[in-house]
Specification:
The protein is elongated. With 368 residues, it is α/β, with parallel strands linked by helices. Helix 9 links the parallel strand 14 and strand 15. The longest helix has 14 residues. The chain folds into two domains: 129 residues, Rossmann fold, CATH 3.40.50; 204 residues, Methylesterase CheB, C-terminal domain (Rossmann fold). It is built from eleven helices and 16 strands. It starts with 21 loop residues before the first strand and ends with a helix. The strands form four sheets. A seven-stranded parallel sheet has the order 10-11-9-8-14-15-16, sandwiched between helices.
């Protein structure tokens, strides 16, 4: 089982969140890039440079000897690149990994490969100008702050947690005509999700008469590219959810912004900024809860690999509404927190290795 330190349970607004310093490792084969990132980190009292590595091989060794809270991982390096380094670190001595590379947009394939192995996010490397001026400082600090919230290392500027507990309870769907599709499949994923989604989508029959909706924790910058990458890996067309999208048979819809995806009482998909202070964006809990409230016919829901607890309560609400619910087992998860949390509260009727989830979904949709 791979575990990362995860975000605490939701706390009342009046409670004080303890501020802790993040120890951060830097991995880059260019000294100027290491210097730029070091200067960004020391500019904040909340961050400490734990160590710096020249390539992926050295990073693997350093992470094994001295695991930091977060690693800033380059992608393109000699000997062992960032993809392989991410895979080995998450297997041997897991910790949060943020990809920091010269041009994220120019290496999206490697970005999604690394995310499939457990990297949380990606950003362009800060620049160091000829007069020593730094570029991209605030963008990097913002990313680090977001990750800090997820792994339980809030900074002084972090707002109080407000989770899916603020969402209304499930209720019966509105009196609308039944949807014109055989069934609905909903999938939630986070850390390691891109790789897990490839395996699940590849295993589903192309002729399956069901709509598929995916909510993946991901910065909106990468949503379009993830849809294209999933198509390249599975040969299944993936469409980003647009405001008012309607689930259709044979169509795969993917969350496309940082806002939460909700199924409205009109049985169409909408984006919502609320709950505004839920650190998981888009939230699987928020989406699953809305489906439990508003979709009239039970389908199949699966909660895949991910950090934290997002999706567990929503999966339970779906089960209570008659849905067949599945959680990925811990041993096949890159990070097992999310599906394990679902299992602990009885939200999952089946706990399966990743290799068996597509088959289970297919059988249950056909039964339904």
């Amino acid at each position: 089982m791979i575990r990362l330190t995860r975000s605490p349970d939701p706390v009342p607004p009046a409670e004080q969140v303890e501020v802790t310093q993040m120890r951060i490792g830097i991995v880059n084969d260019l000294s100027v890039a290491r210097l730029a990132m070091s200067r960004v980190l020391v500019s904040s009292p909340n961050h400490e440079v734990a160590w710096a590595a020249n390539d992926g091989g050295e990073a693997i060794a350093r992470a094994r000897e001295d695991p930091p809270d977060l690693i800033l991982m380059d992608l393109l390096m000699p000997r062992i690149d960032g993809v392989e380094a991410t895979r080995q670190i998450m297997s041997e001595s897991p910790c949060a990994i943020l990809l920091v590379t010269a041009t994220v947009s120019g290496h999206l394939d490697k970005v999604y490969q690394a995310m499939g192995h457990g990297a949380l996010d990606a950003i362009d490397t800060p620049t160091l100008g000829p007069r020593g001026e730094l570029g991209g400082t605030q963008l990097l600090l913002n990313k680090i702050e977001s990750i800090g919230k997820l792994i339980g290392k809030p900074t002084e500027s972090s707002p109080d947690w407000c989770g899916a507990a603020t969402c209304p309870p499930p209720s019966a769907g509105a009196s609308l005509p039944m949807p014109a599709l055989h069934g609905l499949i909903v999938l939630g994923a986070s850390t390691g999700g891109p790789g897990a989604l490839v395996e699940v989508l590849s295993g589903l029959p192309a002729t399956l008469d069901a709509g598929i909706i995916i909510v993946q924790h991901l910065d909106s910058t990468f949503s379009q590219g993830l849809g294209q990458w999933l198509f390249e890996q599975t040969r299944r067309r993936v469409t980003l959810i647009s405001e008012g999208s309607e689930p259709r048979a044979g169509e795969i819809l993917l969350s496309g912004t940082d806002d939460h995806v909700v199924l409205g009482d009109d049985r169409r998909l909408h984006y919502s900024i609320e709950p505004r202070m839920n650190y998981y964006r888009p939230s699987v809990d928020v989406f699953f809860d809305s489906v439990a409230r508003n979709w009239p016919k039970p389908g199949v829901a699966a909660l895949l690999t991910g950090i934290g607890r997002d999706g567990a309560k929503g999966l339970l609400h779906l089960r209570q509404q008659g849905w067949w619910t599945i959680a990925q087992d811990v041993s096949s998860s890159v990070v097992g927190d999310m599906p394990k949390s679902a299992a602990e509260i009885g939200a999952a009727q089946e706990i399966l290795p990743l290799s068996r989830i597509a088959e289970a979904i297919t059988q249950r949709i056909q039964i339904e």
